[in-house]
Amino acid sequence: MAKSECNKAVANLMDWIKREDRWTVSFDAMFEAHTAATLDAGGFSPEELADILGYEGMAALFGCVFEDLTAQRFETVPHNIVDDYLKRRGWRDSVP
What we know:
Blueprint: H1 3-19, H2 21-42, H3 46-71, H4 81-89
Helix pairs in contact: 1-2, 2-3
């Protein structure tokens, strides 16, 4: 898959997360799971964490959470976000 096609597919999947409440909730829960220990140990808020990490650090954290979410299966949903996206919106992306 060409890089631009891959970037488009990832962007479409990220948009899907924003549109579907169950995946937004799952993303938020995954983000909390990735940051809870740090926030508790440091005694600061998510906003303060963003200030500490800066744009690049938050982008890396977002990427980790996004990748983790795409690989997870949840008990309440019989499939993961990628399966759900491909089933409902995958026709938008090219085959390669």
